Amino acid sequence: MTHGISLHAEPAPITLVPARTALVIIDMQRDFLESGGFGEALGNDVGLLQGAVGPCRTALAAARAAGLLVIHTREGHRPDLSDAPPAKVARGAPERRIGDPGPMGRILIRGEPGHDIVAALAPRPGEPVIDKPGKGAFHQTDLDQMLRNAGIDTLAVCGVTTEVCVHTTIREGNDRGYRCVALGDACASYFPEFHRVGLEMIKAQGGIFGWVSDSGAFATAVRSTTQAA
To answer: Could you read off the pLDDT of 39-91 as tens digits, one per residue?
Structure first.
């Protein structure tokens, strides 16, 4: 459908055209959300990220029902670490770094169990999965080409963590001309204050990086397109 729908957001409502809108779910991976993964290896309480799973499912179900483009991302590296900057690999405690053995396989390595997306948000056949070596989903990936080929101009972004990979992706998208909407309740951080401030930064100064909404408002708006069809 090509008509616009209004999405309640801050600093102001935004009009979405479903055919030009994609839901981008950032890094909802076992390595970040489950015990034994990279997030816990860095000393974080992974339970703090679990609250984003339900809202992500709400947004995902609505997007799928409305036929929106859904894109999943995963942060991780080649098994030989040839795409991993040495400075990144060197972070963290010895034996708990990228590429080291962990309870879910080698930490943050593509193809390992910990690199996979959590079962509750598993991609369906045909939904693109972007494997990214950095924080932002545009860095050294084909995401931009994929979006432009599909005629997308607006991104609804959710996932983890708010102030790192979600924020970087929204900043990258903003610089490339995309309208970016963070679904705040469907994002999470190991640091609740970082989550709060990260969302504030996106919508500050009239929406300097984009808009902030939530999964319920997104689902309601998107659902209206299916009811009108």
So the answer is: 888 889 999 999 999 999 999 999 999 999 999 999 999 999 999 999 999 98
- Indicate if 144 belongs to the active site: no
Which two tokens mark 227?
């009811």
DSSP state of 122: P
Bridge partners (DSSP) of residue 212 are 10, 182
Q: What is the pLDDT of residue 228?
A: 54
C-alpha–C-alpha distance, residues 90 and 65, integer Å: 43
| Catalytic residue, candidates 56, 116, 158, 165 | 165
Residue at 125: amino acid letter: P
Q: Distance between CA atoms of 221 and 29, rounded to whole angstroms? A: 27
Report the predicted TM-score, pTM, of the whole model to 2 decimal places: 0.95
Which residues lie closer than 8 Å to 129 by C-beta, 6 or more apart? Answer: 71, 72, 73, 74, 117, 123
Catalytic-role residue among 31, 56, 116, 132: 132
DSSP 165: I
Task: Indicate the pLDDT class of residue 1, thresholds 50, 70 and 90.
Answer: very low
132 in active site: yes
Judge contact between 223 and 65, C-beta under 8 A.
yes
In this structure, the number of other CB atoms found within 10 A of the CB of residue 215 comes to: 24
Beta bridge partners of 132: 75
Tell me, yes or no, if 165 is annotated catalytic: yes
